[in-house]
Design brief:
The chain is mostly helical. The protein has helices spanning about 5-25, 30-35, 40-50, 65-80, 85-95, 95-120, 125-135, 140-150, 150-180, 185-195, 200-210, 210-225, 230-245, 260-275, 280-300, 305-310, 315-340.
Length: about 350
């Protein structure tokens, strides 16, 4: 490919890189830190501001570079996310937490899919919203988007629901805990927080507000949920292939999209569990990974205009609200049950 042809995608990529650096800078503001808003969330906001202001005034030839960030950069970021996790964390927290996460993730996705049908929602948006609520918020939506093969604005809608309800929980949980309304021990509160809050940043923010006795188990339980992203994507790929009306017709063999990046994600977790790399290098990789995911989020935002949000309607937020109620009350009941 000639330099002339390479220039256009590079323009779009460089634009997203610039926005991502800005997202990191803004996320370092004290009031933004106080809200526990990660660069990923700031990035999608910046991308959406661009989509609804300058987007129509810049060359359409920049779009391939933006789309490159929503796919290839995204998958690289998901794979490197494995350096934040180890299999030892699963063993340390115990089988009860693993069972709790498995139940929460499974029931939330199934409930979301069922409610999506009742609400007559677009299937892709319902799935992305359910996966974002059940596993790890924006990162889960990003991971599922290539498997679902949805339009970028649908992923942005799903991320928006996660941000709204996850941020609400981040402030609500500590307030309820301090008021003594939730009849949970510190360990139970940690399980409850890690198993039901949306984003890793939300769990960190809420956990820190309630003390280390709650924060430590909450973060580990949350990390176990994050690990479930890979098997969920594999199962999702198989299910979608079987239900795709365009496949299997006229005797054609149904095509299953194998999310290889999900397996690489697990392989990286396994490698990281061996602790072969210096801690400083792992920290550097994690910083790079956060930047890559911020690029992906920013690019998704750049593909999301308010017109597309209007097209999606209020139903995704209604679905996310129902799932939020389930996570709160269902998660509370499950924690009490497992602790018996």
């Amino acid at each position: 490919m000639s330099p002339k042809h390479l220039a256009n995608p590079l323009h779009g990529i460089l634009l997203i890189v610039l926005f991502s650096f800005s997202a990191f800078y803004i996320a370092d503001f004290e009031w933004v830190k106080h809200l526990s808003l990660s660069p990923l969330i700031v990035g999608i906001v910046l991308g959406m501001l661009y989509a609804n202001s300058l987007r129509n005034h810049l060359p359409e030839t920049w779009v391939p570079g933006i789309q490159f960030c929503t796919k290839q950069v995204l998958r690289t970021g998901i794979v490197l996310y494995g350096f934040k996790l180890t299999f030892q964390s699963v063993i340390d927290i115990g089988g009860s937490a693993l069972a709790l996460d498995l139940i929460v993730v499974t029931l939330t996705i199934l409930l979301g899919a069922g409610l999506g049908r009742l609400l007559k929602m677009d299937r892709d948006t319902a799935l992305l919203t359910s996966i974002g609520s059940s596993i790890c918020g924006a990162a889960a939506v990003l991971g599922a988007e290539p498997v679902v093969k949805s339009k970028p604005y649908k992923a942005a809608v799903a991320v928006s629901t996660v941000v709204i309800f996850g941020t609400l929980s981040m402030f609500l949980y500590p307030a309820l805990h301090r008021a003594g309304i939730l009849d949970l021990t510190p360990e139970q509160m940690g399980l409850f927080t890690g198993a039901t809050l949306h984003e890793v940043a939300h769990v960190v923010g809420a956990g820190n507000a309630m003390g280390q006795a709650i924060s430590d188990p909450a973060i580990i339980v949350k990390m176990i949920r994050v690990m479930m992203l890979a098997p969920v994507l594999v199962v999702l790929s198989i299910v979608l292939a079987r239900r795709d009306p365009s496949s299997g017709a006229n005797g054609e063999k149904r095509k299953i999209t194998i999310p290889w990046f999900a397996f690489l994600f697990l392989a990286v977790i396994g490698f990281n569990s061996l602790h072969l790399l210096p801690a400083g290098l792992v920290d550097a990789i994690n910083t790079l990974d956060t930047f890559l995911l911020t690029m992906a989020m920013t690019a998704l935002g750049a593909e999301s205009s308010f017109e597309k949000f209007k097209k999606a309607g209020a139903r995704p937020f209604l679905l996310a609200g129902f799932l939020y109620i389930w996570l709160f009350f269902g998660g509370y009941w499950l924690v009490k049950l497992i602790s018996l």
